[in-house]
Amino acid sequence: MGNTIGGVGVLDKAVDVLDALEARPLSLAELVAVTGLPRATAHRLATALERHGLVRRDSDGRFMLGTRLLSLGQAAADAWPLATAAASALASLREKTGESVQLFVRDGEERVCIAALQSLHGLRTIVPLGARLPLSAGSAARVLTSADQTAGGWIESVGEREAGVASVSAPVRDASGRVIAAVSVSGPIERTSRQPGKRYGSYVVHAAKEIESEAGLRGVDA
Amino acid sequence: MGNTIGGVGVLDKAVDVLDALEARPLSLAELVAVTGLPRATAHRLATALERHGLVRRDSDGRFMLGTRLLSLGQAAADAWPLATAAASALASLREKTGESVQLFVRDGEERVCIAALQSLHGLRTIVPLGARLPLSAGSAARVLTSADQTAGGWIESVGEREAGVASVSAPVRDASGRVIAAVSVSGPIERTSRQPGKRYGSYVVHAAKEIESEAGLRGVDA
DNA sequence: GTTTGCGTCTCATATAATGGGACACTAATC
DNA sequence: GATTAGTGTCCCATTATATGAGACGCAAAC
Prior knowledge:
The structure is a homodimer. By secondary structure, chain A is an alpha+beta fold. Chain A has 2 domains: 10-72, Arc Repressor Mutant, subunit A, CATH 1.10.10; 80-214, Beta-Lactamase (2-Layer Sandwich). Helices cover 42% and strands 22% of the residues of chain A. In chain A, the strands form 2 sheets. Chain A has a 6-stranded antiparallel sheet, sandwiched between helices. In chain A, helix 1 crosses helix 3. Chain A is elongated and about 60 Å long. The A-B interface holds A 3-4, 9-12, 14-15, 18, 22-23, 25, 44-45, 48-49, 52-54, 56, 64-77, 79, 107, 112, 114, 128-132 and B 3-4, 9-12, 14-15, 18, 22-23, 25, 44-45, 48-49, 52-54, 56, 64-77, 79, 107, 112, 114, 128-132. The first copy, chain A, binds a DNA duplex through helix 3.
């Protein structure tokens, strides 16, 4: 019969298994419960993935993400030289603001966090590396979707994507001026105040410029 | 007919595609050349992987590793709290020695690098995160395979795994004394000398102890 | 002893992957 | 303009492939 049209093939199921294991190690029975796959199928897929190093077993025999994903993830990260170039700028941005900082790029109809450093405060916003967030809310989202220049070069949002969280973002542009990424600072409203842009705006813009020059995207300097 | 026994299923081919893309972005034609798959098949697999975010396209339409691998890789890394715990100890080890430092764990009949920092020298050994190395050569390999205590607590090897490279490794042990990982320092023989253990041994052993206490594996201190 | 849970494996069935080849399109080359 | 060579994408008859209920072996719990 025909070809796979929407989520029925081995590959789709295999990805379901990986998705399930992303949260935590799972025994076969748990894996079956989470994925909804028949026992035999889940077992076959998990062991097949194991052969490729994408899945491994812990000491209790439970399935978990394998070591092969380390190198693949590393390679995927290297595919954005931007993330590497941004490392030092993000570090100093976190130091200056004390809050969590992130670098987002657009990917289809979502945005992806390709670099992040978490605030050192006990109460902090967490955006894990690789997290996919909507392109419809948050200051970084608006930076990535609006092509044109803005007021001070930054955009702020308060409690937009998530209640209690405020953020400020600035665009990273390539040589031709197109927005290719967004740098963000985000934290609990209690600390950032309701005008986070006022407090952190210039820092974020500076970090964006720093990333541009570090990545060799535009002429030198800030 | 029967089930897949050795490398014929969709899954195996899909992994081949990911493997091929690990090195660099590839056009469909190149992908076909590298994997040996028929055009239609390569295209179908690549686009299927794309639907899952494991593969994406660059601006020229070439296939490359996707953003989904970032989060999966991150999750896989989190599965070794050891890697996180080792971060600071490895940083200071690199600072003290000036050479590349790594943390290896055994995985089946190989060893995997689950954390690494490269030397800042121009001439340096590079062991990328996630790299799979043999369990048959190198000081770290011997640390992972020999259960018992050794002379100064470290093991050295000179030009064993790779010509011109010397390394010193020390075991990281759990509460019951079993070796669960190996810390290594490696560099070109010209700098490390032919007795790398003499020079770096104590540093490496100290780093191992530091990792043990940081990870809460043994009692406190060094 | 019996039961309940586990992971693993088999094998007849039919479903889902296959891939040669058609197609549309662009960029050189004639 | 016409031709050739190169892309990526899509179709669809064929059959090789994944499927999954159920059997099995093994522990641990009752």
